[in-house]
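Box 4.2: Ligand-aware structure prediction
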Amino acid sequence: MQQHAEYGDQYIDGAWRPSLDDAGSIEVLNPATEQVLATVPAGGPADVDAAVAAARRAARGWATTARADRLALLTRLRDKIAAAQEEITATVVAELGAPVGFAAAVHAGAPLTVATSYLTLLAEHPFEERIGNSVVLAEPAGVVAAITPWNYPLHQIVAKVVPALAAGCPVVLKPAEDTPLVARLFARLVHEAGFPAGTFNLVTGTGAMAGAALAAHPGVDVVSFTGSTAVGRQVAEAAGRGLKRVALELGGKSANVVLPGADLTRAVNVNIANVFANSGQTCSAWTRLLVHQDQYEEAVTTAAKAAAKYAPGDPTDPQTRIGPLVNAKQLARVRGYVEGALAAGARLVVGGAEPVPGLPTGFYVHPTVLADVTGDMAIAREEVFGPVLVVLPYRDEDHAAELANDTEYGLAGGVWAADTDTAAAFARRLDTGQVDLNGGRFNPLAPFGGYKSSGLGRELGRHGLEEFLQYKSLQY
Ligand code: NAD
């Protein structure tokens, strides 16, 4: 048996302290080897109480810390994130199973980009505005509970904690059970950067115990949650009872619409890369490819060819483009959806639900493309959270818009057309928070968040900062 680290502490009030709860520990598995990497404490109400109390004690001091001083600390934190890129990459490869190249570029790179973006935003944000005879002050919204998932574990932490701290709010973070190690690494970087005690606190634990205690805690003013829609509803209920402000980044079932006249080959290739990235464990993934019925078979063949380039493999190998899923539960879930779709009459283009040959250990699944899927099948409606693409035909533009919007979700999407004006005109018809036109790049300053059941509120950029501000009007 390989040695693994056993951690018994939480980061509370500026120091690592033994967990106060007696709820045992959480095993962190490497999804490629299925070996235990570490154990972390399963914190609960006692740790949450201590962390929230520390944050409350820190709240006024941090709220009144001059912008220049907050900026200096956040700059130090950004520099620490920059210096720790390799360690972040290795940690996310180990606990999430993300391929090392993708982990370096995205799991380590995106948090650095986002942290950097908030330095400029904090330096330039107008925290005071004159409106008629009023001066409107943007003040910190109070103690923030940040509850995060495992799929982009550090990005989701940074996208909440950095703007909250920039706004002047102290934070208690409850990261996902599967990926607490990169959260502990982040806590170490915050500590090294020298933030005042209590401004940032980390409590590891299960969602049912630590997460629920935090979301309902009377000492919390804002709950910022990223995760599944089902848990998001529970968190919103708990927050609602306490009249806390709540921001929810939830699931998705995003459509990529290829209009006639678009570069079909490019649109399909980019779609495959989009939906297989991170083993399909991306809330904003384009899981539904919509093409005109006259181009349907061409699109399916192109998708099959593109998908063949994604052979699952060891995430530590730089050649690997797709690693395992995060855990056995996700593996069973993804296989179940593929089996269900085939039983309901979908056509298997590539992939399937069988075990991946040559990879007996690890939570590997075949990257899968399905055709002849109808809008009523679960695979067309529900979030699979795996590398599975469904290809759907449409008759005309109205039908394409109707299909694209025929989902409870509305997080992201793509539109491809002969020119970007045509794509933009179509994008206005979509009930979704983000749309990439002809492969438009991700913009870390643009608001990210959902319409409909994909969430409430926005992250990233100025809109993400404003989630943590409240307004006071002074009349002159
Ligand atoms: P999850 O909802 O199970 O867990 C998310 C977090 O909530 C974890 O930290 C978990 O411990 C905690 N939690 C669980 N039960 C809780 C409760 N009762 N009270 C408080 N906290 C609780 O989701 P997951 O499986 O970790 O992540 C996958 C889901 O997250 C997918 O549905 C995905 O689409 C969604 N997601 C959305 C975005 C986005 O920005 N919209 C980003 C990433 C992931």
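In the box above, the bound molecule is nicotinamide-adenine-dinucleotide. The chain has a mean pLDDT of 97.
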